[in-house]
Amino acid sequence: MAPAAKITALRGMRDVFKAEYAQRRRILHTLERQFRLYGYGPIDLPILENTELYLRKSGEDISARLYEFDFKNRRIALRPELTASVARAYVERLQDEPLPLRIQYAGPVFRYEKPQLDRYRQFTMTGAELLGAGGAKADAEILHLACLGLEQLGIKDYELVIGHAAALEDFLLQLGLRKQLLNHLLRNMENLRKRSLKHVVESLQAIVPDFDFEIDDSERDILNPDGSGQRLISVLRDMTDAEARGAITDFLRSLNIQIAANRDEGEIIDRLLQKAREDEQGPKLRIALDYMRRLGALSGSPEYVLPRARALAAEYELDSDAISQLEDTLAVLADSGELQGSIKLDFGMNRGLHYYTGLMFEIHCANAAGEAIQLCGGGRYDNLISILGGAQPVLAAGFAFGVERIARLLETGEEQSRLRPDVYLIPIAEADRAAGYQIVNALRKRDVVVEVSIDDRSLRRSLKHADRLGAGLVIIIGEAEREREAAIVRAMGAHQEWSVAFDELPRQVEELLKAHD
């Protein structure tokens, strides 16, 4: 009979075995403790949420990355991150709690993305959220906590990269760009640097088809029969679409202008309205792109970037609130205690500019190959609680670590390829097991990892198996050892052995493990 076909893990999903699992647990335990020292209490959140939660937070852009399904007429998704769930839990259950509220979390998340090195479709996040506090002291606390978390794990040569969402968004709002164009530019700040200005312009043409706004002769005649069209355009820009369509219809009829028989009147009116609207946006888009290009080039040490950012703001007659906020945050961060890593400001950072409202940051560290890996990201999101139905606006900031990426960075080679027991205990016969289990229990109370031979191998085969496991010590108990109440303890690597009294075993084993570590 042919064997049954194998069932394999889904693409982008993976099994985690002993050594890697133990390493993850150590990472999570270390970070949980660091969060707790800052007053951040744990919260456990559902893996399933209403899809609407993520659409409100991140917009339709996230739809393609959701594991989403319909269940009994409800749209449900596996969580792609945890901040939205924290905010939902606050709105639903925690609005009566005193602020500020400090929350920590950890757990698996799911994103339907192309699997890459250190990027899977299921991965583990742990992080912290500070609700109900704003300003430099709150932002500095979040930054300091994130950096110290990595330092507690032994990662000290990291780079903290800081940006500010308002540096771009405030300027675009001041220009008066349409919301669709404003959001498109915010989402393409990174493409302006990584790809090209041409790429961003081409993407804009999907919204504004032609920056020259050329119109055909019949449309030009309608807009400018005697030069009065420009006055009409100015009036149209201040109207709603319905009001503008009515005004164009009245204008055409008052001048007794006839639409050609092969042209639909409604189509012509909509086209004229689009041209009138877009004609206003063209110059603003060119100014916006020039500002974005120059702002995105500001990257480097705070001493280098801050004065240049102030000069750029002055040139465009902008207030420098975002720059002042960063200066204040950096000053409080310096007072919070020395950090091991370096700090870089980057006004071209495009970390969810449509979502963050102020501080944004990432923490990077180079791997053994010299490639920069992002380990952490976060920022300030003061609008999220209101978006999710909060009774009143709540200032908020937070961050999350990617646990798998940290684990990969901490790998040191073959020593972590499997979890090794400290001690392997071999009872020679069934009569020796009771005494063996007493010893095992005493050792485990001292946090010594012990495996017991349970498969009736011969002594020789059991010793060979212990060697393959990589056990540090082997304890052998037979009839002779029970009679003299002393076990044989063998150091596998050193090829030494001793006879140790039962009541001395826990202490002696601990000392031997330390000596042979």
Give a quick summary of the entry.
With 517 residues, the chain is an alpha+beta fold. The chain is built from 20 helices and 17 strands. The chain is 45% helix and 19% strand.
How would you sum up this structure, described in words?
The protein is 45% helix and 19% strand. By secondary structure, it is α+β, with helices and mostly antiparallel strands. It has a nine-stranded mixed β-sheet. It has a five-stranded mixed β-sheet with strand order 14-13-15-16-17, with helices on both faces. Strands 2-4-3 form a three-stranded antiparallel β-sheet. A hairpin with a 4-residue loop joins strand 16 (486-491) and strand 17. The longest helix has 32 residues, at 265-296.
What's the layout of helices and strands?
Layout: H1 18-37, E1 41-42, E2 48-50, H2 51-58, E3 68-71, E4 74-78, H3 83-94, E5 101-110, E6 122-131, H4 135-152, E7 159-164, H5 166-175, H6 179-187, H7 189-194, H8 197-204, H9 217-223, H10 229-236, H11 241-254, H12 265-296, E8 299-300, H13 302-315, H14 321-335, E9 342-346, E10 359-366, E11 372-380, H15 384-387, E12 396-402, H16 403-410, E13 423-427, H17 433-444, E14 450-452, H18 459-469, E15 473-477, H19 479-484, E16 486-491, E17 496-501, H20 505-515
Parallel strand pairs: 1-5, 7-9, 13-14, 13-15
Antiparallel strand pairs: 2-4, 3-4, 5-6, 6-12, 7-10, 8-9, 10-11, 11-12, 15-16, 16-17
Helix pairs in contact: 1-4, 1-16, 4-14, 5-12, 11-12
